[in-house]
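Annex B, item 7. Sequence and C-alpha cells for protein A, then protein B.
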Amino acid sequence: MTKTEFKTRYMPLYKELYRVALHMLGDSNEAEDAVQNLYLKLWERRDALGGIESDEAYCRRLLKNICIDRWREMRRHEQQSLDEEDVPDLCDDAYSEDEMNDKQSFLRAFLARLHERQRRIFVLRMQGSTYDEMELLTGQSATSLRMTISRLKRELIDSYKRKKGCE
C-alpha cells in the first residue's frame, strides 16, 4: 500500500476514531496518543491491510484494544501510587509512640479491607484533596463522594470503638 492509498483510506476516519478513544479513556491527551498508536500500527501493517473488508470496523476494533490496554495501564499505575502512598499521620504528639503505631496499623488494616474505589476516595480525602479535585480524579459527583466519606468515617469510628471495647 502506498502512502497516498493509506491517507485516502484511513485518514478520513481520524475524527471518529478520536471520539471513540476520548469516550473510552476520558482524557484528550490519552485519546490522541491512542489514535496515534493506532495509525502507527496500521502503517506497520499496511501491506497486510488489503484483505480488510471494512476499514472502519477494523480500525475501531484495533483502537478499542489499544484503549483497553492504556486504561489497564493507567489503573495499574494509579493502584501502585495508592499502594505506595503513606497513610497520613493522624496522631498528634500527645500520644505515645506505641499508641501512634497501633492507630497507624489499625488504619492500614481498615484501608486494606475497603474496596479499591472506597480506599482511593478515603486516601484522597485524608491527603487533603477537595471534593472538586476528587470529583475530577474519580469521575463521581461531589454528593456521592461526601456520602462515601461520611459512611467510611462512621465505619472507621465504629470499628475502632469495637476494637478498643468501647461499645
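Protein B:
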Amino acid sequence: MTRRRRIYEGKAKVLFEGPEPGTLVQYFKDDATAFNNQKKGVITGKGVLNNRISEYLMSRLSEIGVPTHFMRRLNMREQLVREVEIIPIEVVVRNVAAGSLSQRFGIPEGTPLPRSIIEYYYKSDELSDPMVSEEHITAFGWAAPQDLDDMVALSLRVNDYLSGLFLGIGLRLVDFKLEFGRLWENEEMRIVLADEISPDNCRLWDVKTNEKLDKDRFRQDLGRVEEAYQEVARRLGILPEGGPTDVKGPKTLQ
C-alpha cells in the first residue's frame, strides 16, 4: 500500500483517503475474526478474493438499480468507493435457519424459513453488536423511519437478486449482512449500500451437498477455508481454473 491518510480500520478492511474529494480507498485484509472478535486468524488470500467478489456483486446490483458506494476496483486488494455516512445498523436477511437464529429459537440448522426474516443489530464491538428493534433504531436516532424503510426495501431487493444469482451457480444464500450509508449529493441525501458483499458476510451452502462455502468454515474450524472462498469466486467466473483473470460473468450450472 502507498502511504495515504488512514481514515478507519475495521476487522477486515482499512479505509484510506481517496484521490478525489468524496472518495475513499477500501483495502481488503486477510485478517479474519469471529464471535465478536473473540476468535482471530488469517485466511491467506481472502482480501484479494473478497475484493473481486464484492466488486462483481456490487456491480451487478448497480445494474439493476440498487445504489451502492462502489465506484471501481483499483488493484488486487483495493477499490475506490464513495464516502458515505455509515448508519450504525447491520441489516441481516435470513432465508434458512442457521447461526444465532437456530440457537435462539432451537430451530434445526438448515430449516427453510416460511419467509425471509429481517433482523437489525447495533454496530458496536464493545456491546457485541446487540440485536435491536425498529423502535430502538428510530428512538435513539440511528436512522429515521424513512431511512429504515429504504434500507428494508433495498435489502429485500438485494436478497431477491442474489438468491437467484447464487442459485444459478449451485449455491443457496442462507443469510447475509448488509450495511448502508447516507450519500450526500448537492444538498440531497440518499441511502446507498455500503461495506462489502462476500463470503465474509454471506452464508453460502452448496445446493446439493449443503457444504458451507463461507466464513463458517473459519468459525467452526471446518478447515479448507481458503478453498471455500476460491470456489465461490470460481463459480462466479471470477477465478476460473486457469487462475485469476478478468472475465464477464458467472457460468451457470446445469
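Comment on protein B: Helices lie at 46-63, 99-105, 134-139, 145-167, 216-219, 225-235.
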